[in-house]
Specification:
homodimer, alpha/beta, six-stranded mixed β-sheet, Creatinase/aminopeptidase-like (chains A, B), Creatine Amidinohydrolase
């Protein structure tokens, strides 16, 4: 019997409410969500079929059979294609998929497809396989279900956060040593890889690839010094921080498919008053937000506290569009912490807390982010690097 | 004036032949191909419009303006969204895109979209923006155009190959030292990062991300020891190679968006006769193939030489489905070196040469791959790690 996960029940409840007989997933993040299997390379489609009645079915190319069996918690694994002596359902996934849907009695039913991820060309193939089905969009069901993390996901988020913390310690030390952006980043990534190798035997750090590639190692640090902070996201350069500048360190780590984010702004020696005031304003806002991070608080309220705090400090012209995002299977999941959000915090939600300032005219920028878990009674910082004002 | 690339002329010739008035690209690999800009994070769409007449237009969110301007060779950059004091074309990309298409006089024309990559939900948005246009598929045009590499791509492939070679030297040394899979991989990745930091100031090693994440560092090594070679692709484990086993080292490197692949099988001490015979058979086939890697040879012929060589050596039951793939912006591009291929080699083509054997019943596997460039008169191995039989 399949060792199931609470998310399966949540998805099925949403399916029942919307009259969906089966979900068919191709998106790597979703096939992993419903099976625990990430083959890293997706040139041969990985498919999960979740019927309203019964257990999920994982379908993989025959050459991924052993790998899938060893990593997936789904026990009903079907094969397509030809490889070595494996017995498969047929030469291609299209026929194998049709045959599973027939077997489950849903080929003429209502089928949920990931319309925000499925390429048009594949959608047309699905229409060809399922001429009698009603095809509907499952994107919103997944986004909603993914808001609440299951125990296995939370356990892996803690591991990812620990990896990120080790990376941050190494990065801050490298800033203190006078390293350049790229040296800071590579020392930080090496520290995470060392911790992974020495302490996490059963953890995978692969990320989710694209159709043209795969991401073998998702332990990433990038560093932006001084005015390069306005780039927000860029590959680390040989730029050397100068005394009196701030240095932003961005770390994304992944453990068994679940992400954590840890970002810090380090003052490289005493910094100008304008930069110090921006950092102190942000640190104060984070303190104001902390007691609100508990079940029942509207996400929008965290944004509104930030907005009011920035206005009170004279930064009314610099209100960011959002102050964080949900995180989990994706490093950037779809829900934003912004004024428009209608989400109310519940236990099991995970998001980044990152109210920050960019004031290019004053050469002022801050970048501080932590990965937060909402618990039954409040919240927990999963990333635990030293907070407050950091100067080296 | 835009500093153009030969690929623009090739694409325009294909557009003219198919009556396409403009290409609109969202796929990260393609917007990079037509602009040189990889923002790493794609949560705000990056769009390139290539009209049949005139220069490409790069459209980015206002917060990517400075980054885009500094990295792209496209000079016509348009902004959408709101950020700081930037003046933009409007609050969202949809209106900005419609307005550029109006300006170019192609909004009622024939528009090429990437049907093998564009999600259905976005395709529907495009139908809404372009009610008077004829929407056609541009996927095949891109695949065909990408077969021939431009000088800038070849220059970057050489850098990626050099990175991969440094990673391989470190990995082979680590096998000799008795390291486990993960130690071998992390030492190899650290060596590539060190070379990047010390010798390649102007090179970015970011890869192309997904809608939920970004790949900051695409210098990847994974290692599979003994019977784990049958996994083909898996995250490195703590498995220690045993004397008498083969160890497969897989390296993917990227430089300014262009990939190289370098894979070797290392014998950890003397190996059983069956494993040695498999490696010698593959090495002999690679020698047979070498003189055929030149302009004018059908790709399928490289596969057929492999097939005949394996049959002659008694491996008729173990013919692989393909013996390589094209490579460039993608680590795995779409054209396979297989029996069905109709492609004929031309100067500027790049592919991996990787005829290999998997014989699970005999616990025999080989994994050797190099990145090859077809030149005017023959070929060049871009990866140059020691070949032949490797024993440590």
């Amino acid at each position: 019997m399949t060792q199931t996960r609470p998310r399966i029940a949540r998805l099925k409840a949403a399916m029942a409410a919307e009259g969906i007989d089966a979900l068919i997933c191709f998106k790597p993040e979703h096939t992993f969500y419903l099976s625990g299997f990430n083959p890293i390379i997706y040139s041969h489609p990985v498919i999960v079929i979740l019927p309203l009645e019964g257990d999920p079915v994982l379908m993989v190319h025959a050459l991924r059979d052993d790998h899938g069996r060893s990593e997936s918690w789904v026990t009903d694994i079907r094969l397509y294609g030809a490889w070595s002596t494996k017995v498969t359902m047929g030469p291609n996934w299209q026929e194998a998929l049709a045959s599973v849907l027939d077997e489950k009695g849903v080929r003429q039913g209502t089928i949920g497809l990931e319309e925000d991820a499925m390429p048009l060309a594949r959608y047309r193939v699905m229409q060809g396989i399922l001429p009698g089905a009603r095809l509907v969009d499952s994107s919103e069901i997944f986004d909603r279900c993914r808001l609440i993390k299951d125990p296995d996901e939370i356990a892996n988020a803690r591991i990812a956060a620990t990896l990120a913390d080790h990376g941050m310690d190494a990065a801050v030390e490298a800033v203190a040593q006078g390293c350049n952006e790229r040296e800071i980043s590579t020392l930080s990534m090496a520290a995470m890889n060392r911790y992974w190798t020495e302490h996490l035997p059963d953890v995978e750090v692969a990320d989710f690839g694209t159709l043209e590639g795969g991401a073998q190692n998702g332990l990433w640090t990038w560093t932006l010094a001084g005015d390069r902070m306005f780039r927000n996201c860029d590959n680390s350069s040989l730029r050397q921080p100068k005394r009196g500048e701030t240095v932003a360190i961005f770390i994304w780590a992944v453990a068994n498919g679940i992400h954590a984010e840890n970002e810090r702004t380090v003052a490289y020696g005493p910094i100008p008053a304008a930069n110090r005031r921006a950092l102190d304003t942000i640190l104060k806002i984070r303190e104001d937000i902390a007691p609100l991070m508990r079940p029942g608080t509207p996400l929008a309220e965290l944004f509104n506290v930030t907005k009011r705090g920035l206005e009170a400090a004279g930064y009314a012209a610099n209100i960011p569009g959002r102050i964080g995002h949900t995180i989990g299977i994706g490093a950037h999941e779809h829900t934003s912490l912004d004024a428009k959000s209608t989400v109310v915090l519940q236990p099991g939600m995970m998001f980044t807390l990152e109210p920050n300032l960019r004031v290019p005219a004053e050469n002022v920028a801050t970048q501080i982010s932590d990965t937060i878990l909402i618990t039954d009674t409040g919240h927990e910082f999963l990333t635990r690097s030293r907070g407050g004002y950091l100067e080296v």
